[in-house]
Structure prediction request, 423 residues.
Amino acid sequence: MDLKRELNLLDVFCITTGAVISAELFILPGIAYAKAGPSVILSFLIAGILALPAMLSTSELVSAMPKAGGIYFFTRKSMGYAVGTIAGFARWFSISLKSAFALIGIGAYATLITSIPLTFIAVCCCIIFVFINLIGIKITGRIQIFLVSGLLGILILYVLYGLPAVEIERYTPFIPLGIGSVFSTAGFLFISYGALLGITSLAEEVKEPERNIPLGMFLSLLVVGTLYILVMFVTVGVLEPSKLQNSLTPISNGAGAFMGTFGIVALAIAALLASISTANSGITSASRYPIAMSRDRILPHFFQRVNHRFRTPHFSILFTGGFMILVVVFLKLEMLVKVASTLLIMTYIFSNLSVIIMRESKTHDYQPKFCSPLYPWAQILGTIGLLILIVEMGMIPIIVSTLFIVVAFAWYCFYASSRVNRE
Prediction:
């Protein structure tokens, strides 16, 4: 049974924006400030700029091939089943990790008003979001519109009220730990933009995907990137370094500095909205990768089954939700972020390479309705920049990611290679 096209441009924008603006904005700035000082503002900007070429590449790819599975499908078409398997697992794994981080964010902020353990709250929320995803994509889209509207409104108020309270001397020295710290922190923060391309996995459920997905992603990157920089500018400018460094509630602390208790409560609500939005949309987009991989026989057949009543991939949604619960219970916070960022960067590189291969191969059936500007320089420079981010993040994420690639390739060799239908 086919998936149902029910998402319009507003749904695409809200699902993408809700997935991108997440717990990272409300939890990671304090940790990132400890790594780079005031230049963390520049790190957010660099991460956004390096996400742009992959966004343009993916926009072109989805306008030519609007299929469920997003980057997995594009990589498989351009580089074959083996690399496609790695890309598919990496994308599913990284989006699931990002969503699990959002669940931890919900628990962290909820513990400010309750004594219930963080992990228990996160697990319960995951179960609720799985249920919402099971009963229909249209309901998910409407919930995202509500959540994103409230979130953007609160963040805009934070910026407008905070700018007059900024103290310029707090930005001096701007790069206290060297330029290398700026790039390593950009890699650490890349997870903040990691869900930007996730909407492509829902291409079979979007009306006019060749138009609405590229436009929705562009608007989301523009709005989110601007807000990230402005929110970080205000937060650094209103807080003492000792209060900002390594804080797990930096934005709420910033609001408290110039808005008092009302600001703390308002930003805590925004953090909850962001985390809920990310976790909900993360399950939505991540669960579509197993569908595409199952269709190609890389995963067992039952992953592509669609519920007859709600037209949703129930097995894939349940599997994704179960994995997220395991991550919440067992994985440490900083390692979760680093591994998720590294795998997300890897999938962005696959997207850039896929465009180059598809164009240069002169494939007859590759006829995109949107063509990436500045080709191929945007893709080449974007890929080089992303590789620099991976190197700057250190050896542990690289080792973990290498092991991940080895395991994914082994799965292809020993399970999928004899099953796939080679066209």
In short: The mean pLDDT is 83. The longest helix spans residues 250-286.
